[in-house]
Amino acid sequence: MSVEGALAFVDTNVILYAYDRSAEVRHERAAQLVGDLGARRQGAVSVQVLQEFYVNATRKIAEPLTHADALGRLRALARWPLHAPLASDVIAAAELARESQLSFWDAMIVRSAAVLGCETLWSQDLNDGQQIAGVTVRDPFSV
């Protein structure tokens, strides 16, 4: 599901499915994608994704992860190329949100993917095939 050699940004929802065994088919697809990107050193995330993952993985999935398990996964994901947004990124995301009619949080994800030079953004929150700020959105569950 990934493009050979290029960095691919992974949105929180995809990473959550990778660890939510109750999600069945989505879990399998997400776990394969996250595993493949990690093994190829092609996955990228942002501080926002790490924050959202921890909160949701320990509170909102059907079988929440323990603090220790979630922390272990955070440590592994933190080894991926990581975007830590600056104030200028927040401003750029706010402009992108207005221009592209995205929620601010989705615009922050797109901004992070673009700053890291990712060609692909894996997410179910945006339209599959949509191109925003030079990044192509792919929904791993519609492929």
Key phrases:
143 residues, alpha/beta, globular, 6 strands
Elements, N to C (H/E):
EHHEHHEHHEEE
Largest sheet: 6 strands, mixed
Strand order of the largest sheet: 3-2-1-4-6-5
Number of helices: 6
Q: Mind telling me which CATH architecture this is?
A: 3-Layer(aba) Sandwich
Fourth-level CATH superfamily: 5'-nuclease
> What structural category arises from helix and sheet content?
alpha/beta
Instruction: Give the percentage of residues in beta strands.
Output: 5-15%
Q: Can you tell me the residue ranges where pLDDT is under 50 for at least 5 consecutive residues?
A: none
Structure description:
The mean pLDDT is 95. 52% of the residues lie in helices and 13% in strands. The protein has six helices and six strands, in the order βααβααβααβββ. The protein has a single domain (8-138), classed as Rossmann fold (3-Layer(aba) Sandwich). The protein has 143 residues and is of the alpha/beta class. The protein has a six-stranded mixed beta sheet with strand order 3-2-1-4-6-5.
